[in-house]
Design a protein that fits this description.
Helices cover 67% and strands 2% of the residues. With 439 residues, it is mostly helical. The longest helix is centred in the first third of the chain and has 46 residues.
Amino acid sequence: MPPRSKNKYSGRMTSSQQSNARRRQEAPKNPADYVPPGTKRIDVGPLLETAKPGMDPDAPLTLARVIGVTMATIQTALPTILAWATTMGLIFGGCCSNVFALETIVKEQPGAGNLITFVQFLVTALLTWPEHFSTARPPFFLKRRTIPLVRWLPNIALFFTVNILNNFAFSYNISVPVHIILRSGGSVTSMLVGFIWGRRYTPVQVLSVALITVGIVIAAMADAQSKGKSTSGPSEIDPSFITGLAILLFAQILSAIMGLYTQLTYTTYGSHWHENLFYSHFLSLPLFIPLFPSLKSQFRSFLHSDPAQLSPALLQLVPSFSAKANDTDQLPPVLLTLSNTTLPIPKDIFFLALNALTQYVCIRGVNVLSATTTALGVTIVLNMRKLVSLLLSIWIFGNELPLGVLLGATVVFGSAGLWAWEGQRSARKERLRKQGKRQ
């Protein structure tokens, strides 16, 4: 077999191979030291030696440095401060204004609970509807839900019933301050329902609930006795008031069941409070159909109320109207008066619309707060809001509460804060215990 001819290029490297071999020889052993060809090297040693002190903690404290650090801190914290201030404005401004408008209505129309509830639901459903609108999903044009509709139905029935009962209680001689105090004791019914459901509570939680119960009993009995003295006799208790208490108690029990059911829903499907807010109000509207005759009658009564009137305090802001202001016959004090400057709208209709709008603002603020802080923080803020609403009711409307009611309110609000603190502490302890088991 003849010998194989040798290729004249065998044993020689092509130009590309030579270039690659040269790069491998010149490349540093440490990849971090590699500098691409054409990169300009700069020696920063002299600049570092002569650099002025900046954010170094060992640098001397100067006015310029203090101003710089302060401005940087403000710039970093400003969005959080603004968001927190907005949330507090929604809660305290919306909820307290809502209570003011509600008390203004029930003082003249104590039997208008159904109409108040219907308008609240209607306004909230209309204002939250754009978030769920979708042209791509006829015929209802609603976005696809994260939580099944069947899951919302029990929650809707409970939500409708609780709100109807809470506002219906005003027909039975329940004042707004006592209404606030009694509804602040929701942790009592929450514990009862949770215990039946299988939950267990710490001794501090049991103590706080016992104190809340004592506070509610003190406030309710003191208010009942004061009403009995002014209506029936020196020692009798108004039976209508007892009926109102029973209605509020039943509403609190249903509210506790609804809260537990909502919590289980959020645990299964995630916390979608936007859906809950919209569907709980929107799908409750058909439930008002049987109440249409009473709604019509109540609305007609609202239409025949006196025209809304401006207060002297507001008229002073407009010089041309200041001479028309009348400082007498104020109802409620400070804010309303019988003056010759009126608005072209019935007074009860005006406060009905104000109540519905502020109710939406209040709900929005509470949900935003719940999404950004702990349960303890939410409870503390809401208890402070209820206390402010109670104080405003006493001041604006001249409500003279018996000493027993004030004592009961103090016990209720303080014990509610203790309940929230202990619940947060036990929850944190439980999380740490579960983490220890996993490790």
